[in-house]
Amino acid sequence: MVVTYHISTLGIFSMNISYSPLNNRLLAALPEREYQRIAPHLEFVNLRLGQVLYEAHTLIQWVYFPHRSMISIVSRLKSNVTTEIGLIGQEGIVGLPVILGGNYAVHQAVVQVADGAFKIKADILKQEFQRGETLHKILLLYTETRLHQVSQIAVCKSHHCIEKRFCRWLLLVHDGVENDRLFLTQKFMAQMLGVRRASVTETAQKLQELNLIRYKRGEIIILNRPALEERVCECYHLIRQEFNRLMTLSRFE
């Protein structure tokens, strides 16, 4: 199933952009028979920058498979201080408590990079999961990757400097949306990294001087990904390696 719609740019022209559920790696990993069972229930939705998909401690009614968008899982304290504890792009799913039995969001889920997602009613996904077939295996393996990501990010924040953490964060976002142009504000980046805005500005300017990124207000363009990978801490590589290892296991019974 492919969803196509028109985008009008400044009222001058329109272009066709095709959005397919199979651009999400979890959906693409399903056997044809299982995919066809859930495909009619998938609904494409546009996501806005800063849009909250779930507030903490609320019932999850829809599960989202991101498509060229990035969702941050955010812990918010009573003082309104926020910290990002997870990143989900087109390699993943937003709404894991549904298949784990909790049904309620533990943390806030907020759109970090705006584009689209395919959503499905939580009850329908749960029914398919309970069949115990390939989707069951894939989502359990993906849950393991998420647990590893959360723990590795905690290690990263405790032991690595802001530059390495910034590179790790940029690369994970880039992986999740597969777009060199990222529309991100200083304020939002600072909140997600748990640092001062001045620290984000200083780090971004340094990477720009090295011609690794181009940075201006509200936008980052990745110019040299290999060089970013050389400067990043080992946390990024560990997160990606574990994801690829576990997703490879999903292909085999």
Q: Do you know the CATH architecture of the largest domain?
A: Sandwich
The geometry reads as: globular
How much of the sequence lies in strands comes to 15-25%
How far from one another are the termini? Answer: 26 Å
Q: What would CATH call the homologous superfamily of the largest domain? A: Jelly Rolls
Radius of gyration: 18 Å
Report on this model:
The protein is α+β, with helices and mostly antiparallel strands and 253 residues long. It has two domains: 3-133, Sandwich (Jelly Rolls); 161-232, Arc Repressor Mutant, subunit A (Orthogonal Bundle), CATH 1.10.10.10. Helix content is 43%, strand content 25%. β1 (3-9) and β2 (13-19) form a beta hairpin. The chain is globular, with a radius of gyration of 18 Å. Mean pLDDT is 86; it is low at 1-16. This is HTH crp-type domain-containing protein.
Short description:
With 253 residues, this protein is of the alpha+beta class. It has two domains: 3-133, Sandwich (Jelly Rolls); 161-232, Arc Repressor Mutant, subunit A.
